[in-house]
Amino acid sequence: MDEARLNMENKSLTILEQYWGYTAFRPLQEEIINSILAGRDTLALMPTGGGKSICFQVPAMQMAGICIVISPLVALMKDQVETLRKKGIDAIAIFSGMSRREIDIALDNCIYGRIKFLYLAPERLYSDLVRERIRHMKVSLFAVDEAHCISQWGYDFRPSYLQLVGLRELHPSVPFLALTATATPDVVQDIQDKLGFVGGQVFRKSFRRSNLSYMALAEDDKMGRMLRMIQKLGGVGVVYVRSRRETQEIARFLVNHGISAESYHAGLDAATRNARQDAWMGNKVRVMVATNAFGMGIDKPDVRFVLHLGLPDSLEAYYQEAGRAGRDGKKAFPVLMYDQADRERLWTNYEASFPPFSFIQKVYHHLGNYFQIAYGAGKGVTFDFDLVDFCKRYQIDVYPTVSALKFLERDGWIAVSEAVFIPSRFKFEVDYQEVYKFQVQSAKYDPLIKLILRSYGGVFDFYVPVHEFEFAKKLKTSYTAVVEMLSGLQKLQLASYLPKTDAPQLEFLQPRVDYKNLYVDTGFIAERKKVKEGQVKAMYAYLDTKRCRSITLQSYFGEQDDQACGACDLCLVRKHRADITQKLTEEVKNALMGGEKDIKQLVDDLTIGDDSTRLSVIRSLLDKERIVLKDGYYRWNTDF
Q1: pTM for this one?
Q2: What angle do CA 61, 15, 175 make, to 5 degrees?
Q3: Is residue 465 part of a domain?
């Protein structure tokens, strides 16, 4: 190994230990980091919980300039920014819901300040402001998380990801690192094509999780089976269901049977979601009953079971959710329970995901009316978006509406972000002398201004998160009074005050047009429908396979492995059958070594299995000539 390479690797280890406290890399991390440091475009396929963030954070700390991280998961971005800041690393995030002024200040800090990591939601790249400011940054690396979202062959295609290749034009020589936990061979190739990889490298960690016992069980009594499994398995776990109502019903059912449980779904407010997640993370709650809104980015190592009481939309989604079990390497159980109604629902949902063009036109028209956008207006305007309220108002189904929004986004009409809690933000817009002069003149505002100045540094330079309830408590006044004063400072043009939000954001990217002039790529929709049909059929094939579950999953992701796991439900059934066959064979031999017997005597002498199993083994032994039948009597063939 040459000296430069050795120095590079030593530096990576030093950074890893200094900031993250680890003395060694996990498998593949070091190879990925070295590829990036060598300036190569790199695609890393690593299972959920495999330490993906280390792969871009460590090399970025060695490189001059800023690392731009693209992620669709705003909550995860915020967590990573907070974690980096606690380590003394400068990082910020820009996502939907922030004002233009906030974004402007944040981007200035990236150009002129010491920011090392900029986290961006992909829809931010629709903005000319963001793209132009990135052009002036000294960028060291583009890291694309959940990279499968860029592929139309993937299970979770996000139209906003198609903007990413435009980063190449801004900084042609900067390498890309694409990261994903799930990708079929088609998706692996498509990611590289869509991101314009030049001589890129692909690193794959095996999709085999040897400590997981996968099970897929046809079950009419899912509640009873779930209860027995949770009681038997012990430890903490997750139960995934398909609706908000089910999360509440099943959590209540478990509590009534003496198991501590909470429900979790996107309809809960941020404080409730965070409190329930913290209780589960701290093992104060044993079971989280949740929709798929729960779990992304949560790294809890001691999850002993993940139960699905219904069918996910794809094997990719199932593999990600099931993979939240057993990250500590100890035995864990991902169990999928389904009935015939679940199978039929999966196909119904697939068909609803591809509404006719007339429905997409209708949704676009309703959006314009819902937000009171005039024709020719609305470009660049962002709104809080309550999907359920929208669908109720216009009496349309949620499932096809979500799909219509995705197709509208793909063709550049709108951008929709996930729901995320954004706290209230505050910034003084005048200098310290102006604020002091106002304090002297206004006794009403003086205590609040003093509290803000004592609590926050930099409030004259950038937006700071403020907590109105905390202010109210310290000032011994009401929450409403604090909000009125903060709003008053904004009306007086002394400050900017942006109230908190806890809703998805919808942005109009183009001026509103008459729905008859709406362009939507129907050819693309037809292609997506074909891909989705394949994913649904792959899920059915997984349920119906007679092969080992692990081998089936690996094969779907393009990984060939003939070694059965020995732990899934199908392997255990085969092992059980083999054990019974072996024991029955010994019993048949012992019975016949004492003398020949007719079929009734022989079957009656056996103690294992039912009559059908006993007869099956006898027939097999006869076919293999281990036993001989003559004149209606069986005897053991002593030649064996």
Answers
A1: 0.77
A2: 35
A3: yes
